[in-house]
Write a structure and sequence with these properties.
alpha+beta; 25% helix; six-stranded mixed sheet; 160 residues
């Protein structure tokens, strides 16, 4: 038997204001769109903004359903829309903001497991890492250079 150690690294920004101008604008768009999330059951709103290499910005919010598995997270709403409408574009970065509706969380909230796997599919498809920035409603912003930091054992087409 042997032990396997996996190390990941994230950049931590104290606030959105420390981000470069383009990323700050993208995160601000995610913050603004989070307000339109349809989250009547969880009362937990998420906004996502993707920047594509063709200059397009795609926004998404979580969309819940009374039949819980039928809902969709903001990250998947945005990335699936981008894949459908701009199939040849590469996703350069995604900004995510999430918070309970009854308070402004200041803890960075990463994508859920299903969203991580969905983002991983696009990293494999485009053969280029996707920068991922995530935060609560306020406070620190974490940056990952690739989805691999959040999901080191990614499942991909090579296993099929």
């Amino acid at each position: 038997m042997r032990e396997l150690n996996i190390n990941t690294a994230f950049k931590v920004y104290d606030t959105v204001n420390e981000l470069d101008a383009a990323t700050k604008l993208l995160m601000e768009q995610a913050i603004e769109v989070r307000k339109t999330a349809y989250a009547p059951y969880s009362k937990f709103s998420v906004g996502a903004a993707l920047e594509l290499d063709n200059g397009e910005v795609v926004l998404g919010t979580n969309q819940e359903n009374a039949a819980y598995p039928s809902g969709l997270c903001a990250e998947r709403v945005a990335i699936f829309y981008a894949g459908s409408q701009f199939p040849n574009a590469k996703v350069l970065k995604i900004c995510i903001t999430a918070s309970p509706n009854d308070r402004d969380s200041d803890i960075p909230i990463p994508p859920c497991g299903a969203c991580r796997q969905s983002i991983a599919e696009y990293e494999f498809k485009q053969e280029k890492p996707i920068e991922i920035y995530f935060m609560g409603a306020k406070g620190e912003v974490y940056k990952s250079e690739s989805l691999k930091n959040l999901l080191p054992f990614m499942f991909d087409k090579n296993y099929l």
